[in-house]
Amino acid sequence: MITIDNLTKYYGSNRAVNHISFTINDNEILGFLGPNGAGKSTTMNMIAGYLPMSDGTVNICGSDITQEPVKAKSNIGYLPEIPPVYPDMKVKEYLSFCAGLKKVPRSKRGDEIERVMKLLKIKEVEGKLIRNLSKGFKQRVGFAQALLGDPKFLILDEPTVGLDPNQVAEVRALIKSLKQGHSVIFSSHILSEVSAVCDRVVIINKGDIRAMDTIENLEKSFASSLVLHIKVKGDRTKAASVIELTNGVKSILAADDEGNDICSFTVELEGEADSIMNSIMSECIRNGIGILEIYTDKPNLENVFIELINRPAKKSGLQELLDEMPEEAGEEAVGNDESSEEKEDE
Q1: Which whole-number Å values give the CA distances from 101 to 96, 119, 222, in the listed order?
Q2: pLDDT tens sequence across 181-193
Q3: How far is the C-alpha of 4 from the C-alpha of 153, rounded, in Å?
Q4: Is the pTM here over 0.85, yes or no?
Q5: Where are the domain boundaries for CATH 3.40.50.300 in the chain?
Q6: What is the pLDDT of residue 85?
């Protein structure tokens, strides 16, 4: 398990990461999301021990990153947003160099390099200079170095940048398979990827955690109302009456005549969507109305993400009290402070 507690980072007077805490469980992929400038890379650099923290603790598999850095870092594989590759080295030479830095035993080094090259499908370029590789291959070489030594904890910052759709699918499948023996923190701006591979997500903005839960729970919590789209063939007025009178239908938001007795309705529901949909279909069929299409709009991770990062950050209890205090009270408090200072001077 990886535990991040009260992690904070200041750059001068600017607070980039604001006392955040979360855990990454064994055999779990945690999505780490936020807009540009939210503090994601700063946080991951501190977790990896590349950047000193201003406050807080990071515990990697039982070792504190500041108290036992060598032991803690031996359990970390890190792929930064820009892969840490040396362009004048050949792929296999570079991986051998990284294996040495990670203290992979010399007797096992060759097998380990072959293992990661096979996983990332870079065996075909093992003898090429890294500078001559495409962006996608450079990304995979960087990913391979993160896997050397089979670390228990992987930090992956935008691991699919520069990959073509086929490579993205392969890397996505690889990341999902990695949780069998690893804990993974996975950062990406491609939210469909996060939905496909992550067990939980942490959403951060301006250094603050805005949400932390499973994707399913987050989507449910943002489902204020459910919208149903239904396309039917038959009499429009009759279809509208049948739909509107079905239990669970709150209102018909829109109706569009598409010609040839085909009409589309947008319907607001209240209640259990599947049950209401079944009732609508049964009533339509009973009344001789053909259903051509029916589906619901449900909130997805993208909707949740946009909503959360655009919400104002929660204020501290003290700040809320100060905001609620009448201006006269605030001025009186300042006046009292000044009076106290005058008395002290006397």
Answers
A1: 9, 20, 46
A2: 899 999 988 888 8
A3: 13
A4: no
A5: 2-220
A6: 93
